[in-house]
Amino acid sequence: MAIKKAKMVLDKDYKMAAVDERIYGSFIEHLGRAVYDGIYQPGHPLSDEKGFRKDVMELVKELQVPIIRYPGGNFVSNFFWEDSVGPVAERPKRLELAWRSLEKNEVGLNEFVGWTREVNSDVMMAVNLGTRGIADACNILEYCNHPGGTKYSDLRIRHGFKEPHNIKTWCLGNEMDGSWQIGHKTMEEYGRLAEETAKAMKLIDPGIELVSCGSSAYDMPTFPKWEAVTLSYTYDYVEYISMHQYYGNRNDDSLDFLAMSDDMDQFIRTVIATCDYVKAKKRSKKNINISFDEWNVWFHSNAADDDITKNHPWQVAPPMLEDIYTFEDALLVGLMLITLLKHADRVKMACLAQLINVIAPIITEADGGGAWKQTIFYPFMHASRYGRGVVLLPVIHTTKHDTAKHEAVSDMEAVAVCNEEKEEVTIFAVNRTLTEDVELTADLRSFEGYELIEHIVLEHEDLKAVNGYGFEGVAPRKVKQCTMSDGILTGILHKASWNVIRLGKKIRIIKEKD
Q1: Which stretches of the chain drop beneath a pLDDT of 70?
Q2: Residue 407 appears among annotated catalytic residues
Q3: Which of 230, 232, 347 is nearest to 281 (CA)?
Q4: What confidence score (pLDDT) does residue 368 get?
Q5: Is 476:456 a contact under the CB 8 Å cutoff?
Q6: Final residue of a domain: which of 349, 365, 386?
Q7: SS3 172
Q8: Less crowded by CB within 10 Å, the N or C end of the chain?
Q9: Which residue of the set 294, 328, 413, 459 is catalytic?
Q10: Do 394 and 382 lie in a common domain?
């Protein structure tokens, strides 16, 4: 078998940006079995006294998710937050228009805030700018963050929450450029509404950070004009603009599928350029950063989802968007994580969409069964666990290939993160060729005294291999495919593989072993 070659040079002084830990965020929407039969299942033998699944909590903790977007997604554009608080027995059931389901409001705002604290996370809250507007956004912010002595803060206290929730990150609506969105707006309509909503919210709590809606995908017909126009209104009042993107291997072309992270890279670059164009036009000194608050692979369940919404509407928690992920899906998720890290100077938040059951790394079996890890669980876990610190600017030379729709695709895609506190460097790398191994040579001589800690690999002969309850067809393992001598790392990255290569200061490694 032929072996291709890749070279990487890493220098500890060539720093690109610190990683904001919120880049490893996720997302839970009132959609399908994400909430009911996902995080919440009263009567399940593994649920706590509040009805939340303890086994699911442990898996979420394993992923170390610092922030979770809530309650949508499309759901938020017809969300009446008042229905989700107060005594559960008094909460109304509502027709949920985005996904044509029945929302019973057993789990609402306060319960979700409590759950996020149990899993060591914060909330990224979204407000309804579809069917509602400025006043309702101000009311929910007052309910969540104001200490007391006002209508809505006192209402929260009466509901049993004396201390404010202090939610500091707020999304100004969701995908308002999309015709599918309840209350879809033109770019001028959304820009004005978001601007005035942002101004009012910051009068209530000047310490919050706000996310203005960007385009719902790279191929939206209004992209990137949507960003340029809406930011012309919101620029002075928001900190972030959102990005959303999903990919799928609909043509069953795996080589081209693994090149789609290049599209994500171009999407990010174009949004940054558009933000900076508005910055220049406004003569501003402020950068708008990116909240990539929906990203994942999503296509396996599309036909089943269409059948439920069209032919079997108004169910409570129907099994929707339950993609069962393959090994090649995990590779693309790894490539997307690498892409986000390569833009850590401007991508400050990101949310793997979603977290439980709905296009998710964690699945719970129906009818009271257990929980298990999908293939995509592992690259996300590795990046969240080992990808905190400072992204280095690597010099990479690698051979390339063409695919059906992409040219000059790098055989090896990689990024490196230095954790100075732990005295560790982690290289994340994907060999995205399907037939040939890549021989990697990495120059780390500036990291004097560093040695190889471990090389973790996720690989499988079958690109379509999946995991399931009680079995893991795709799981990481430690290998001995790398060596290090005099600051030079050499190793083999097998065809179609996700690789985590961890290095650390020799004295630190000895202490850890002792």
Answers
A1: 1-2, 507-514
A2: no
A3: 232
A4: 78
A5: yes
A6: 386
A7: strand
A8: C
A9: 294
A10: no
Beta bridge partners of 309: none
**CB burial string 467-484: b at 16+ within 10 A, e below:** beeeebebebeebebbeb
d(CA 359, CA 34): 9
Q: Which neighbouring-strand residues pair with 439?
A: 5, 492
Helices 187-204 & 134-145 angle (0-180, nearest 10): 30
Lookup result for tokens 């890890």: 373
Q: Which domain holds residue 429?
A: 3-13+390-513
**377 and 435, same structural domain?**
no
The residues pairing with 326 across neighbouring beta strands, listed in sequence order, are 466
Residue type, 212: S
CA–CA separation, 387 vs 334, rounded Å?
A: 12
Which residue among the candidates 175, 227, 322, 459 is catalytic per the annotation?
175
187/503 Cα distance (integer angstroms): 48
Tokens of 114: 């409590």
How many other CB atoms sit within 10 Å of the CB of residue 105?
Answer: 20
Determine contact, residues 146/152, Cβ cutoff 8 Å: yes
Q: Which backbone phi and psi does 342 adopt, to 5 degrees?
A: -65, -15
β-sheet bridge partners, residue 452: 503
Residue type, 124: M
Residue with tokens 């809505």: 152
Per-residue confidence (pLDDT) for residue 366, from 0 to 100: 86
Whether the CB-CB separation of 459 and 430 falls below 8 Å is answered with no
71 preceded by a cis bond (ω within 30 of 0): yes
Nearest to 72 by CA among 44, 38, 109: 109
CATH number at residue 370: 3.20.20.80
Tokens describing residue 171:
């999304």
Identity at 185, one-letter amino acid code: K
> Which residues lie below 8 Å from residue 117, measured CB to CB, with a gap of 6+?
none
Distance CA 383, CA 394 (A): 17
Q: What angle do CA 401, 405, 410 make, to 5 degrees?
A: 25
HEC profile for 138-201?
Answer: HHHHHHHHCCCCCHHHHHHHHCCCCCCCCCCEEEECCCCCCCCCCCCCCHHHHHHHHHHHHHHH
Residue 56 has phi, psi (to 5 degrees) of -65, -40
227 in active site: no
Q: Of the residues 346, 367, 386, which one is the last residue of a structural domain?
A: 386
CA atoms within 13 A on the CB side of 203: 10
Which amino acid is it at 463? L
Per-residue model confidence as pLDDT tens digits over 278-322: 999 999 999 999 999 999 999 999 999 999 999 999 999 999 999
Q: Please, are residues 167 and 123 in contact by the beta-carbon 8 Å criterion?
A: yes
Consecutive H or E run containing 263 = helix 260-282
Looking at residue 2, its pLDDT comes to 55
**8 Å CB contact between 334 and 379:** yes
The two most distant CA atoms of the chain are separated, in Å, by: 73
Identify the DSSP state of 193. Answer: H
Do 341 and 490 lie in a common domain? no
> Do 427 and 335 lie in a common domain?
no
Domain count, the chain: 2
Rounded CA separation 119/121 (Å) = 6
**How many residues does the structure list for the chain?**
514
